[in-house]
Amino acid sequence: MKFLLDVCSSSRSLRALLTSLGHDVRLVGEGDPCASDETVLALAHQEGRIVVTEDKDFGELIVVQRRPHSGIIRFLELPIAEQAVAMQEVLTYYQADLKSGAMIVVTRGRIRVRPLA
């Protein structure tokens, strides 16, 4: 799968995990770290990438405004140290949901999946 790590979710451990599992990973900060959420979402969709973020505005863009996307993983109040472990769980149990463009919200002890296709 292909991922775009938003500026707020671009921890080294998360990138290292995804890369070690054979995923294609890009960081928003490698391009324009000041890019708007709309621009980030459009770029991710254009490249078929799942956005990984802590930013709630992406939910607004895809649910309320119905912007095209390729899926979202949002870490909500989850420390960076726990994000790689949570990502591994998401990839293990929710890969089909991700491939179908779902929005997945990960909190400590809970993963919520919102199908959006």
Characteristics of this structure?
39% helix, 117 residues, 6 strands, 6-stranded mixed beta sheet
Q: How large is the count of helical segments?
A: 5
- Major beta sheet, strand line-up: 2-1-3-4-5-6
Number of strands: 6
Q: What composes the largest sheet?
A: 6 strands, mixed
Task: Indicate the overall shape.
Answer: globular
Q: What share of residues is helical?
A: 25-40%
3D structure, described in words:
This protein is an alpha/beta fold and 117 residues long. It has one domain. It contains 5 helices and 6 strands; from the N terminus they run βαβαβαβααββ. A 6-stranded mixed β-sheet has the order 2-1-3-4-5-6, with helices on both faces. 28% of the residues are buried. The mean pLDDT is 90.
Layout of secondary structure:
Blueprint: E1 2-5, H1 12-20, E2 24-27, H2 37-46, E3 50-53, H3 57-64, E4 72-75, H4 80-93, H5 95-99, E5 103-107, E6 110-114
Parallel strand pairs: 1-2, 1-3, 3-4, 4-5
Antiparallel strand pairs: 5-6
Helix pairs in contact: 1-4
In short:
The chain is an alpha/beta fold and 117 residues long. The protein is built from 5 helices and 6 strands; from the N terminus they run βαβαβαβααββ.
